[in-house]
C-alpha cells in the first residue's frame, strides 16, 4: 500500500506552529509522510528575526518531517507591511504552486487562521481538514457565532456583561468573548467568516480528549453548533503537548531543593505581559502568602494595549526596577523569579510543583492538565476568558483570580488564591480532581483510548 502523504499549514506564529508539530509527530508515528509548509513573517514582525532559527530547531527535532518555507507572494515584494490576515491570504498563491509540485497529497491540514486556503484545496481536489489548536468547548462556541450573530440584530459588544446562554456551553458573559469578536468591525466579520469556512471542511482535528469536554463534543456531533448545514466530522486527538527537553535550567535545580507539591508556578505565555503596577501587586501577594513560588516575569508592554501578533516583544526585564524594593532579597528562601522564560513542561512535571497560575492559553492549559495540577486562572487575551469559563465551570480544574477584567488584580486576591490552592481542603480536593483528569488524559492517548481511536478513524477516512 502506498504511503499516505499530508501537508500541514500552520500559518503564522510559534503558538500555532508548536501544536501543529505535535500533530506532525502523531502522523509520523502512524506511518504517514508529513510536510509542514511554513509562512515566513513579514519584515518588521516580532517573529521575523528568529524565524530561521525556529525552523532549524523544528527540523532538527523532527528529522522525519519535511519542512518547506513558502516563497513570499509576488504581490508583497514591494508593498508596505500588511495586516497578517491579508498577508496569509496572499500566501495562497505560493501554497497552490507548492501543492501542485508534489506527487500526491492525501490531505491538507489547515490552521484556523488559514481558513481561506480551503479554496486552494478545493481547486486542486485535495481534501481539506482543520487542526483546531484550542479546545472543543471554544470550537463549539466559535462555530455557533455566525448563526447567533445573524439572529441577534445587535453586536456582541452591546451585550456588555450580560450573560449569554448557548446550548453548546455553560453560561458566560459576552465580554468573555475574544476582543476581535466584540469590536464589531471588519476584523469581526473576517473571524466569523473563518467559522463558516471551517464548517465547509472535510473534518476538524481538535487538540483535546473527549472525557475533558463531554458537553462540547456531544454538541458538535449532534449538530447543535451549525444549524443550517451538517457539521464536519470532529476528531478529538489530544492532548498533544510538547515534550520536555531542557534539564539544565537554573530553576529546575532550585525546584530540586523544594518539597513535593510545594511550589506555585506563575507563567503567562509568550505574549503575556503586565504593567509595573500589576507586577508589584503580584509580588506583594506572593510574599504575604508565605507559599513557595516560581515566577516568570516579562517586561511590561510598551503601551497599555495587550501584545498583538507581529508586534515586537519587550526586552529583558529589569527586576530591581519592576519589583518592590527588597522583594528579591526578602523572598530568596521562599521563591525564585526567572526573567522572560522557563522550561514550562519540565517545571509543571517536576515533583515540587503543586499549582499553576496561568493565562489559560490552550497549550498551557493542556500542559497543566497533563501534569495533574490545579489551575489558578488569570486570562489575558484571545479566547482565554472563555477557556477560563470552561476550566472553572465545566472541567472543575481551576479557580479564577477576581479582578482579571479590571485594571489590576489586587495583592490580597493573589495572596488569598495562592493560600487557598496550596493550603485548604478545597485546594486539596481540586488537586485530587486534577490528578484524576491526568490519568484520563494518558488513557485517551494510549492504544484503545478515545484519542488514539479517533486518529485511526481519521486516517482510515483519508
What does this 3D model show about the protein?
By secondary structure, the chain is an alpha/beta fold. The protein contains 19 helices and 15 strands. A seven-stranded parallel beta sheet has the order 3-2-1-4-5-8-9, sandwiched between helices. Strands 12-11-10-13-14-15 form a six-stranded parallel beta sheet, sandwiched between helices. Strands 6-7 form a two-stranded antiparallel sheet. Helix 6 (136-152) packs across helix 8, helix 6 (136-152) packs across helix 9 (214-221) and helix 11 (276-289) crosses helix 17 (411-422).
Which short descriptors sum up this protein?
462 residues, alpha/beta, seven-stranded parallel beta sheet, six-stranded parallel beta sheet, 19 helices, glycosyltransferase, UDP-glucosyltransferase activity, UDP_glucos_trans
Summary of the model, kept short:
The chain is an alpha/beta fold and 462 residues long.
Strand and helix layout:
Blueprint (H helix, E strand, L loop, with lengths): L4 E5 L4 H16 L3 E7 L11 H11 L3 E6 L13 H7 L1 H10 L5 E5 L6 H7 L3 E5 L3 H17 L10 E2 L7 E2 L5 H4 L3 H13 L4 E4 L7 H8 L12 E3 L13 H7 L6 E5 L8 H14 L2 E6 L21 H4 L4 H4 L4 E5 L4 H6 L3 E6 L3 H9 L4 E3 L6 H11 L3 E3 L10 H12 L2 H21 L4 H11 L2
Parallel strand pairs: 1-2, 1-4, 2-3, 4-5, 5-8, 8-9, 10-11, 10-13, 11-12, 13-14, 14-15
Antiparallel strand pairs: 6-7
Helix pairs in contact: 6-8, 6-9, 11-17
InterPro entries: UDP-glycosyltransf_plant, UDP_glucos_trans, UDP_glycos_trans_CS
EC number: 2.4.1.-
Protein name: Glycosyltransferase
Write down the Rg.
Answer: 22 Å
Number of helices: 19
Q: Given the C-alpha coordinates, what overall shape results?
A: globular
Give the helix level as a range of percent.
40-55%
Arithmetic mean pLDDT = 93
